């Protein structure tokens, strides 16, 4: 199956299509907390990737020459970009203004994403940090920072970076979701056309930790690399294993199709559902 971005604050039962009705009952009695935590993790995962795409992709675009109108999808017309290359540190900012700005993925964003680079973007020693300033996603406040370190080329000749989400909190009325990630990222497609963002494709490997609004803590490990394409709203391939206490959950992310279908495995039973 395929995996994509997850939705919170809905009746999850409406989107699950199990094999047997009695399995649904057992699933909700035994595993609702684990599933909810996995949903939280995947939601944050998706937005973290989008923040990275908008900030790093927008910076690459502004430092190069625009070649396609598709690139304008990433930074909407309701946002303002500024780039400062005159100081010691490279500075780039996307400002979504103080009112909701509807982005190409159908989500509203407010306020700022600020990116600072220690040197030239493609130098092996360069470290780039992106910080959310008073940032809101669909009216939920985010505290967020991630750091990218250029690791040079992989054995296959692909540019490789370490991407660490050092701070991430979603502040909601019902509590706070916390997230941490330490990943390596291989730039598998589009690396020879830095001015054309929409053809970029990345493979993610690594681990995450998440604590949901109820205090449930789950760690995850990528089993098959996650495929993320800049022109798609969703993670489109790969798999993750979640662990909470002594329980494990599996998540399948598909065959590189860009759709809203996903599957989660609980006690060996697969549950298909749609994502928004």
Tell me the helix content: 10-25%
Strand content: over 45%
Major beta sheet, specifics? 15 strands, antiparallel
Q: Residue-averaged pLDDT, rounded?
A: 75
Structural class: alpha+beta
Give the N-to-C terminal Cα separation: 16 Å
H/E element sequence: EHEEEEEEEEEEEEEE
- Silhouette: globular
Radius of gyration: 19 Å
**Low-confidence runs of at least 5 consecutive residues:** 1-31
The number of distinct β-strands equals: 15
How large is the count of helical segments? Answer: 1
How would you explain this protein's 3D organization?
The protein has 276 residues and is α+β, with helices and mostly antiparallel strands. Helices cover 16% and strands 49% of the residues. It is globular and about 55 Å long. The protein has one helix spanning 21-63; strands at 16-17, 80-84, 90-95, 101-102, 108-117, 127-137, 140-153, 159-172, 175-189, 201-211, 217-229, 235-244, 247-255, 261-266, 269-274. The protein contains one helix and 15 strands; from the N terminus they run E-H-E-E-E-E-E-E-E-E-E-E-E-E-E-E. The chain has a domain at 34-215 and 226-231. 38% of the residues are buried. Strand 2 (80-84) and strand 3 (90-95) form a beta hairpin. It has a 15-stranded antiparallel β-sheet that branches.
Furnish the topology, listing elements before pairings.
Blueprint: E1 16-17, H1 21-63, E2 80-84, E3 90-95, E4 101-102, E5 108-117, E6 127-137, E7 140-153, E8 159-172, E9 175-189, E10 201-211, E11 217-229, E12 235-244, E13 247-255, E14 261-266, E15 269-274
Antiparallel strand pairs: 1-15, 2-3, 3-5, 4-5, 5-6, 6-7, 7-8, 8-9, 9-10, 10-11, 11-12, 12-13, 13-14, 14-15
């Amino acid at each position: 199956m395929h995996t994509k971005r997850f939705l919170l604050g809905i009746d999850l039962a409406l989107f699950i299509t199990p094999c047997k009705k009695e399995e649904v009952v057992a699933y909700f009695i035994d595993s609702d907390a684990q599933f909810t935590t996995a949903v939280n993790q995947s939601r944050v995962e998706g937005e973290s990737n989008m923040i990275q795409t908008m900030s790093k992709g927008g910076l690459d675009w502004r430092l190069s020459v625009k070649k396609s109108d598709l690139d304008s999808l990433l930074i909407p017309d309701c946002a303002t970009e500024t780039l400062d290359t005159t100081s010691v540190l490279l500075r780039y900012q996307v400002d979504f203004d103080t009112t909701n700005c509807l982005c190409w993925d159908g989500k509203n964003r407010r306020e700022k994403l600020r990116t600072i680079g220690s040197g030239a973007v493609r130098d092996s020693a360069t470290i780039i940090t992106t910080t959310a300033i008073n940032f809101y996603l669909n009216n939920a406040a985010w505290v967020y920072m991630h750091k990218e370190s250029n690791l040079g080329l992989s054995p296959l000749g692909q540019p490789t970076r370490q991407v660490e989400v050092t701070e991430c909190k979603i502040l909601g009325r019902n509590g706070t979701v916390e997230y941490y990630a330490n990943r390596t990222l291989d730039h598998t497609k589009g690396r020879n056309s830095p001015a054309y963002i929409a053809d970029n494709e990345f493979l993610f490997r690594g681990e995450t930790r998440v604590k949901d609004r109820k205090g449930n803590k789950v760690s995850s490990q990528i089993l098959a690399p996650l495929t993320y394409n800049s022109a798609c709203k969703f993670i489109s391939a790969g798999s993750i294993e979640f662990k909470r206490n002594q329980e494990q959950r599996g998540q399948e992310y598909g065959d590189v199709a860009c759709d809203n279908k996903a599957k989660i495995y609980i006690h060996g039973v697969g549950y298909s559902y749609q994502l928004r």
